[in-house]
Write a structure and sequence with these properties.
- This protein is an alpha+beta fold and 276 residues long.
- It folds into two domains: 125 residues, no CATH class; 95 residues, no CATH class.
- The protein has eleven helices and six strands.
- It has a six-stranded mixed beta sheet.
């Protein structure tokens, strides 16, 4: 078991052949991208300001800000990094004025009221990616949708906090805290693997309905005694499956839900790259 002082880094995570890694700019390093590529994985990462860009053929520096101001939308191959340059695909597109304003307000707030530089404010009006996926049929709109799947992580954390009371653990000793956290993570794993996954598959196959992970977690938090019946439902009990459909299915709406978004973008990727 790791000690209390253990710090997990992105570089500690195993990458296997066929993996697709989505990274925020906080985990941006050319060395890490090289590690993913050597493991025969792919990646999509947000752009980090002041990253050195060079032309892959001439080795000349690229003035990215000037290029972005001139072209607006970019899709080209570049080298990033100084010591061991990594060849990647660079994509950039402008965002709506509303989105740009929200980003700039957030940046100003995070800088405690101080305005970011003019270059940063300009860049916040764009969405910029580096990726290993080079197929031209996967365009910037696909990458925007693909990268949006990262919000699933935030939603899962929100579910843990709200429905498993991670924010309400009273003051206890280190060993007791470890036991509490391990018990909750074991419960989460049990619910996901033994209830959510099989029920999600059954609902989709039988009634073309999609199971909401957050609704299911919320339902079980309020109806703890339902865990045993839902385990039976996961084994094929139609009686208890009706309960899940009633309280935990996605609502009908025009905009796609997460599973629909995931299915769509993965279908596009599987048609162009070999993802395991």
């Amino acid at each position: 078991m790791p000690t209390a002082k253990t710090i997990w880094l992105a570089s500690d995570l195993e990458v296997r052949k066929g993996d697709l890694v989505l990274r925020d700019r906080g985990y941006f390093t050319p060395v890490e991208f090289q590690r993913i590529m050597e493991a025969q994985g792919d990646f999509v990462s947000r752009y980090k300001h002041k990253t050195t860009l060079t032309h892959p053929e001439t080795g000349e520096d690229i003035n990215f800000l000037r290029l972005l101001k001139t072209e607006g939308t970019i899709d080209r191959t570049v080298l990033i990094g100084k010591d061991s340059p990594v060849e990647v695909r660079l994509l950039a597109t402008q965002v709506s004025q509303e989105m740009a304003n929200r980003r700039r307000q957030k940046a100003k707030k995070e800088n405690r009221g101080h305005n970011p530089s003019k270059d940063v404010l300009f860049l916040l009006g764009h969405t910029i990616f580096f990726t290993r996926l080079t197929d031209p049929e996967i365009d910037i709109s696909d990458f925007l949708e693909l990268y949006g799947l990262r919000w699933r992580i935030e939603n899962i954390f929100k579910t843990w906090k709200s429905d498993f009371n991670f924010d309400k653990i009273h003051e206890v000793g280190e060993n007791q805290l470890r036991l509490i956290l391990m018990a909750r993570f074991m419960a989460i794993t049990l619910i996901y693997e033994k209830i959510y996954v099989p029920l999600s598959r059954m609902m989709l196959e039988k009634n073309k309905k999609r199971l909401s992970l957050m609704k299911l977690m919320r339902y079980l938090n309020r109806n703890f005694n339902a865990i045993a019946p839902l385990l039976k439902a996961a084994c094929g009990s139609m009686k208890h499956l009706e309960i899940v459909e009633k309280y935990c299915a996605y609502d009908k709406r025009k905009r796609p839900n997460y599973p629909e978004k995931e299915a769509r973008i993965l279908t596009i990727l599987e048609a162009t790259v070999n993802l395991s």
